[in-house]
Amino acid sequence: MTKRILMGVVLSGMMAATVPAADFSSIIFYEYSHDATEGGTADGKWENTRAYLTMADKPADNLSYKLTIDAGRAGGDADDKAYEYFVKNAYVDWTNGFGKWSFGVIPMNMFNVQEGTFGHRFLSAPIMDNHKFSASADLGMGWAKSFGLVNTSLTWTNGVGYKKAEDDKYKKLAIQVLAGESNLSKKDGWNAGVVYSMEPVSADDSKAVLGVIGGWAGMGARLGFEFDTKTTTGTTDVTEQIIGVYGTYKLPISMPLEAFLQMDMFDPNTDMDDDGQTELIIGAQFNPVKGLVIAPNLKTTSFELSGSDPVTFYRVNFEFKI
């Protein structure tokens, strides 16, 4: 009992000494959607699509840490699933003369640039994430270093993402080489680069993802594109393909109003015909006060298969930052 009391006192003292110095932030995504598909659900619904709570600090000039708790529907966004909480990020960054080293549950480097180019995460997960080309975070280690205009990043992780425990002995290697600005939603400029990952799934087979990315921002506009392939070898080799384009434009009016568009063309098997789909999100966002974004938009998905009707939703998405 004495040991437990002593441990409680020590932990309380550590938290009192360290937590007040840390930065806390939160971001929450809400959505109201109405199924406008022929034969679809007549009534609209509210949904808390995502919530994040983050604690970060820099205890030394060359050392920082970040802890992010992620809340969302178990197994996706189906409304019959309960909310679950995950540790999305829990890592330490150590910077020295050889670059920046990251350890723990770290952000992946496969689509962070694309996400920064579009800049509207509250509307939709990045296209690679939607189609399971890569997880957004994983347990392992990473390295990043800039060589003038060129930024390089490598991660070596479990490969199953931050929501699952490792289930085999194989690890995932991911590489990003980027020229230009890495986050065009915060700074004008351009970027162009390549991302690549490879993970064995057995002694003979593997999953490999290759992406070519690019973007430009200036004069109130922001444009981006990506071309991605995912090849899985096994009993039958399958190659999936993504073509994504997205853009935003700040309207030249007094109120803070921005139009946006994202088009995602996905082919789950390039060797088969009539199995592809195209998703389009188009709308506008309004920032009435700092920390709040309101975005009415249309989301529609069409299918190549003959006789398949498009699925359409009228939505109003909200982003709230603390």
Q: Report the total helices.
A: 3
Cα shape = globular
In spatial order, strands of the major sheet run 1-2-3-4-5-6-7-8-9-10-11-12-13-14-15-16
- The name of the CATH architecture of the domain at 100-321 is Beta Barrel
Q: What fraction of the residues are assigned to beta strands by DSSP?
A: over 45%
The main β sheet shows up as: 16 strands, antiparallel, barrel
Parts with pLDDT < 50 across at least 5 consecutive residues: 1-17
Radius of gyration: 21 Å
Helix-residue proportion? under 10%
The CATH H-level homologous superfamily of the domain at 100-321: Porin
> For this structure, what is the CATH class of the domain at 100-321?
Mainly Beta
Count of β-strands: 16
Structural class of the secondary structure composition? mainly beta
Separation of the first and last Cα atoms: 40 Å
